[in-house]
Design goal:
single chain; six-stranded antiparallel β-barrel; five-stranded parallel beta sheet; 14 helices; 21 strands; elongated
């Protein structure tokens, strides 16, 4: 009888299995429903694998989790980003930090991470069973579980069970069958489809330090950072972070909202007004298209021309001819452009799911169920999700490491 069966051969599942085996468990199995374990790790970050984020203080790290910020304070005090970097380094995967804080293997290839995890699992005796989906779980009166799996003729008994099935509904259904309450899953980390023809004409333009304000019903969500204009609306790190924190509100409001954008990177309105008025003197003979006040120099040229058009101003007009009314329209468009949200971006584009097993029913010190002794959780199956930038993988490493260690410790008592 296996001491531990891990359902799910992804990041969290491998981390838990390896940690348990390294701590002394002799019979550890990973059941992966698909033919390719660690598939999400392999394709993440465009094939480079954004393993974690250079956020070394657990108190700051938790702020990147729209669901799970407070509950993760304890787990991250035990295993956070620095621990993940050290863990992978000790197993042959060195990481480098990029300018935005994301951390990748120095090889810039996710294959390095996948190979390291598979090699380490094999070295410590973890049995990997691909194309074996966990289909049903029966708790045994004597302790442990009877598992039914695809490809198994008879139920297999195990002492401990860890569910690390990610966002797949099968794992949530198993947790629910074992008495757990589920927080309804909704998409998170997605782009927004906006009304406005001019945005489609600017597809591919990226603009940094953009303050965003999303009004969803009576709620307001704010973020600031780089946005990318797409054929259907907006994307980019700031927009993805915004939708992560607003995921539930947007879902409840059927993805109808109002997005307010400040293209001036949050310039002081009074100073901008002064510079616009001064431009009528300093840039008198220059066309609006070719001259700009200092506060507006960072706006990309294509975007600047589109904003002039949106303000109903002729780009060929000299600054000296800009009327007071035209100036007011321009400032309004620059600092308070308002776009109607029509829905999410292309179907299937969302990166993670918000929702899963209710955290109140999990002892996060061990990642063990409060409902069913011997049942553990790790990764996205729990109601925890992070913003883009390596934070979701970090939760997988942390929860997997804690669960694997706790399971092994339980056998030594």
């Amino acid at each position: 009888m296996p001491e531990l069966v891990v359902a799910g051969g992804g990041a969290a599942g491998f981390m838990a299995a390896i940690t348990a085996a390294e701590a002394g468990l002799q019979q550890v199995q990973i059941w992966e429903a698909t033919a390719e374990p660690l598939a999400k790790v392999r394709i993440s970050g465009g094939g480079r694998c954004n393993l974690t984020h250079a956020c070394w203080d657990p108190a700051e790290l938790v702020a990147n989790y729209p669901r799970g910020e407070k509950p993760l304070r304890g787990p991250f005090s035990r295993f956070a980003a620095g621990d993940a970097v050290a863990w992978f380094g000790e197993r042959g995967v060195d990481l480098h930090e990029e300018a935005d804080g994301r951390m990748f293997p120095t090889s810039n290839s996710s294959a390095t991470v996948v190979d390291a995890l598979r090699r380490r699992a094999e070295a410590v005796g973890v049995e990997l069973h691909s194309q074996r989906a966990l289909q049903a779980v029966q708790p045994l009166a004597s302790g442990g579980f009877a598992l039914k799996g695809r490809g198994l003729g008879q139920p297999l008994h195990c002492a401990k069970l860890l569910l690390a099935t990610g966002g797949h509904p099968s794992g949530r259904q198993l947790a629910q069958a074992l008495g757990h309450r589920l927080i309804a899953p909704v998409p998170s980390l997605f782009t927004l489809r906006l009304a406005g023809k001019f945005l489609r004409e600017l597809a591919g333009v990226s603009q940094g330090l953009v303050p965003l304000e999303l009004h969803v019903g009576a709620e307001i969500f704010r973020q600031r950072g780089t946005v990318l204009i797409t054929h259907w609306g907006l994307s980019g790190p700031a927009l993805l972070r915004l939708t992560a924190f607003a995921a539930r509100a947007l879902h409840q409001n059927q993805y109808r909202a109002e997005l307010r954008v400040d293209w001036t990177a949050g310039a002081d309105p009074q100073i901008l007004q002064q510079q616009l008025r001064q431009a009528r003197l300093d840039l008198a003979r220059k066309q609006l298209a070719n001259g700009r006040p200092e506060l507006l120099l960072a706006i990309k040229k294509r975007l600047w021309l589109a904003l002039l058009n949106q303000a109903q101003l002729d780009a060929a007009m000299p600054w000296a001819e800009l009327s007071r009314q035209g100036e007011q329209r321009l400032q309004q468009i620059l600092q308070r452009s308002v776009y109607s949200v029509l829905g999410r971006g292309p179907f299937g584009e969302e990166f993670v799911t918000a929702g899963g097993v209710d955290l109140a029913e999990i002892n996060l010190v061990k990642m063990e169920s409060r409902k069913q002794p011997g049942l553990f959780f790790a990764g996205e199956i729990m109601d925890i999700d992070g913003v883009t930038g390596g934070f979701n993988f970090q939760h997988c490493w942390s929860s997997g490491w804690i669960a694997g260690g706790a399971i092994a410790a339980g056998f030594k008592q």
